[in-house]
Amino acid sequence: MGRLLSLICLLLGQALGQAEESLPLDQYTLAKGPVVIGGVSQNASGLTYHAGRDSLFVVLDAPQRIVESGLDGSLKRKINLNKFDDTEGITWLGENRFAVAEEARGNIVLIELEPKDGGVSWKKAKKLNLDIKVNTTNGLEGIAYDPLAKRFFVAREKRSPAVFKIIPPKPESVAPPTSILMSLAGRGLHDISGLHYDAKNERLLILSHESACVIEANKYGIETSRLLLRGGKAGLSRTIFKAEGVTLDKRGTLYIISEPNLLYVFKKAKPQPQSSGGKGSK
Predict the structure, then answer these.
(1) Residue 262 and residue 260: Cα distance in Å, rounded?
(2) Which has fewest Cβ within 10 Å: 73, 102, 178, 188?
(3) Closest by CA position to 189, among listed 171, 204, 201, 207
(4) What pLDDT score was predicted for residue 136?
(5) Which domain covers residue 84, as residue numbers?
(6) Global pTM?
């Protein structure tokens, strides 16, 4: 039913002239993995890519920590998140700035990590407290950032999983952030475990570990492609268990992490050369 709804929405978008070029996710295949992420033994919970450092940043929910990794999963450094709680998502904002999602608190915590920092304080960080109803079993499970519109996307994990656009208040304002339900995005998924926003193509990637897939949604929330994370699909020998984070690098390579500490690397498959159709030699 979910796939049928997505197809109907895609056709509707085309009819309205809203169809755009897709990534497309269904052409991606496993290039490497699973590999163990250096410095992580358990609870890998969120993932983002820092284009300036060409690094992956993995957030753990216990202990509360960020691990900077090479694109091959090798350890670069560990950063302690002092007094943070239930950290389930991370996104790069530009330069040395990041945002971390705290699941049950319903917070977006804004932090700055200099290249040699080994820790960051929750008390000193700015927080955006959201008005989305969350709790310890159904909270914020993913976060992404649109650097052009200066807004966030966050996901509520399950029991009507949903994606919300978050518009922060102006710097001088004391008003709370504005939360807007993103229509259609996430429909048909059993849960949402991670997000990534591709600003170049205005695409939101939505990861679901229970549905074992990543879907690509356009700016209207309409699905445009899907990557299946099941054994026998996309070069996978077995289904990815508990996929928790997703991101794209500047080359278009796709990265997925899963609990407890595994990294999967996907690349767009090269098109197969077509036969010339000419006459064979006699």
Answers:
(1) 6
(2) 178
(3) 207
(4) 65
(5) 27-268
(6) 0.88
